[in-house]
Amino acid sequence: xxxxxxxxxxxxxxxxxxxxxxxxxxxxxxxxxxxxxxxxxxxxxxxxxxxxxxxxxxxxxxxxxxxxxxxxxxxxxxxxxxxxxxxxxxxxxxxxxxxxxxxxxxxxxxxxxxxxxxxxxxxxxxxxxxxxxxxxxxxxxxxxxxxxxxxxxxxxxxxxxxxxxxxxxxxxxxxxxxxxxxxxxxxxxxxxxxxxxxxxxxxxxxxxxxxxxxxxxxxxxxxxxxxxxxxxxxxxxxxxxxxxxxxx
Length: 248
What we know:
The protein is an alpha/beta fold. It has helices at residues 19-43, 60-67, 86-89, 95-98, 120-124, 129-149, 163-175, 185-191, 194-207, 221-238; strands spanning 47-54, 76-80, 107-111, 152-160, 213-217.
């Protein structure tokens, strides 16, 4: 696989996609996802791990709400990963991740994930390049373990926003009372090292590509939601699931 260069990829929908027509398609897909997820839960043979990564204000929370919020909450779990606690730091970096991997029948969403340990850690200088490369090898092994030994399908999404869109959304957290609770002065500082983050992400895309990354243009929420819904729908359909019969 050739190296992904995020600066060369559009963060907006192609011109042939109209907003209203695409939103209608998304509604239909979400209705079908409800039935497919119920089947996944009932059959209990497969699981899905959804990995969401993005820069600050990339739209992860909104995506979870608008795509996965329509599903049966019994079968969907969300885990957000912040800075590691003292207990977590006393273990290997994947310890806190592994215990939240999905059991069969469940869609598990990671709002940020194990990739934070090779992204922000490198940008901040908490992890040198040699350690980061070892960690990415361990990530490949971990993802292979889930897919080969627990029948888990992993969907990895990077929500690709432009610097202009990010700044607009960050500024909205100052001006919009409904979003002020999200305001964090540190987000503006992180935006100043955008290029370093892009380099760290591109390394992760290149090295941790046994399970491919999906780069989702995310400046327009309606297009982002459509793409993720389509990929989740196609994945669930591919399982060829059947409802189990009555237990005797």
